Amino acid sequence: MTKLLATAACNLDIDMLNACYPLFEEERVQAIEWSFDALFDRGVLPPWFEGLLQVYSNAKRLIGHGVFFSLFSGKWLPEQAQWLETLRTTSRRFPLEQVTEHFGFMTGKDFHEGAPLAIPYSATTLRIGRDRLKRIQEAALCPVGLENLAFAYSMDEVKRHGDFLYELIQPVNGFIILDLHNVYCQLENFQISAEDLLSLYPLDKVREIHISGGSWEPVESEPDRRIRRDTHDDAVPAEVFSLLDMAIDRCPECKYVVLEQLGAGLQTAASRQQFYQDFLQMENMLDAKNKHRNGEAQNDFLPFHIVSNEPPVEDAQLYQQQRELSQILESDMSYNEAITALNQSSLAHSEWNMEQWHPAMLETAMQIARKWKKKV
Amino acid sequence: MKLSKALLAAMLTGITLQGVQSCTKDKDGPKKEEQDKENDDKGKPKPPTVPYNCPACGMG
Predict the structure, then answer these.
(1) Domain residue spans in chain A?
(2) Residue A112: is it exposed, middle or buried by C-beta count within 10 angstroms (0-12/13-18/19+)?
(3) How much is the pLDDT for A233?
(4) Are A107 and A145 in contact (CB under 8 A)?
(5) What is the mean pLDDT of residues A24-51?
(6) Cβ separation of A24 and B3 shorter than 8 Å?
(7) Quick check: A48 and B57 CB within 8 A?
């Protein structure tokens, strides 16, 4: 089993860095995870942040976490080619130990805005996802991985997610980020046990674990029910620490355990103190687990072969369906109007299986898409 | 992991003096009052902007 590194998600965000600073000062941060694509317009890094990245990169403790690639967009977009070019340049400047992206497609109209939501688990999406992972690997020249999604429309998706992730990463010898708050969301929203859900994931492919906090949101379709959402704006719940304790021993290849919290949730001294305490609790747990891990990895997660020069895989029908779905989710339609629109859309009676979507989860998808819709 | 005192001091200065944020692709957009102020301030150096949530960091 590999040794575990207490890792902080650390971006160029004053509140996040403020919260992390005491941990850096006390030499507790063993690796950092950087969302390298979250700069876009700014482009220029302050020298001190560059220095921080360089130190961790030189020590082989810098890992990259992409946000905006939109892995499953049905159409290959110029922005995706640009994203890969940025990754190529960034990873030459700050060599990364691994690169990861999120599962799903972005709801925004250019697919680099909005929120990532679920896709059908089909041969088409499998082909597209595998193609995109190869391109990421070719650009970054390091192991690549995918994070499990917090959101699902139905129990069937929840149960099939682990298998689909496994199918996606196989050709690139990739790995999985097991986000335990995302797992917690699914446990709460679909009433499945942790034991049952974890057994559905290929845990030997987990190289990284995320822990974070979230929030509860009401839904009109079920007034006496709350939906757990992965908003990353609060402390790590005790349930997620319990999941961490339970999951680590089943993940022999896990190396990085990352505490994530958004800067927006770290603006008060009390929230930063709680973040510090959460990191210490995570660190203590990892120290105890490391006593029983010998440090040997069975899988280096390096690519089997270099990518070919084939054109990007695309699917016009999937792209059209994604556009229709985004439009419905982001509109100001009521829930009932959205159902009517979906029934009249090309998603009806298709691989999206929207007839089986849970009403509360469709409503949640509408809330998420509208929350992150670009305001003009 | 140990960081040099020089780097820690530079970070502290940077954090204290610079308003920095992540996730700046305008996807969450400024609020209207921020936009109005931005229009008024055209041509002037940009002040530090207010951090906001990032969808895929916290995809909720």
Answers:
(1) 5-314+357-372
(2) buried
(3) 83
(4) no
(5) 87
(6) yes
(7) no
Q: Is the pLDDT of residue A244 over 70?
A: yes
Residues of chain A in contact with residue B46, where contact means CB-CB under 8 angstroms, are none
Lowest mean pLDDT among A48-62, A150-164, A208-222, B30-44: B30-44
Q: Round to whole Å and give the CA distance between A76 and A293.
A: 42
Which residues neighbour B32 within 8 Å (Cβ) at sequence distance 6 or greater? none
**Exposure string for A158-180, b = 16+ CB within 10 A, e = fewer:** bbebbebbeebbebbbbbbbbbb
A134/A137 Cα distance (integer angstroms): 5
- Cα separation, A180 vs A164, in Å, equals 18
How many helices, marked H, and strands, marked E, lie in chain A?
Answer: 12, 12
The interface predicted TM-score (ipTM) is 0.89
Site of tokens 């990873």: A91
- Could you give the CA distance from residue A35 to residue A174 in angstroms, rounded to a whole number? 19
Helices (H), chain A: 14-25, 47-58, 78-93, 123-140, 155-169, 180-190, 194-198, 238-248, 269-290, 316-330, 335-343, 359-372
A32 → chain B, closest CA residue: B1
Backbone dihedral angles phi then psi of residue A175, each to the nearest 5 degrees: -135, 175
Chain Cα centroid distance, residue A84: 18
* Minimal CA separation from B46 to chain A, in Å: 12
CATH classification for the domain delimited by A5-314+357-372, as one of 3.20.20.150, 3.40.190.170, 3.20.20.70, 1.25.40.20? 3.20.20.150
Give CA B5 to chain center in angstroms. 25
Indicate the burial class of A76 (C-beta count within 10 angstroms; 0-12, 13-18, 19 or more): middle
Q: For residues A189 and A365, what is the distance between their CA atoms, to the nearest angstrom?
A: 13
Q: Let me know: does A170 contact A176? Beta carbons within 8 Å.
A: no
Q: A89-98, A101-110, A353-362: which has the minimum mean pLDDT?
A: A101-110
| Burial profile A39-60: b = 16 or more Cβ within 10 angstroms, e = fewer | bbeeeebbebbebbbbbbbeee
Strands A215-218 and A226-229: antiparallel
Query: What are the phi and psi torsion angles at A238 (to 5°)?
Result: -55, -35
CA distance A236 to A338: 34
- Closest partner residue to B20 (CB to CB) among A12, A151, A217 is A12
Quick check: A74 and A128 in contact, CB under 8 A?
Answer: yes
In single-letter form, the type of residue at position A190 comes to F
Phi first, then psi: what are they for A194, rounded to 5°?
A: -60, -40
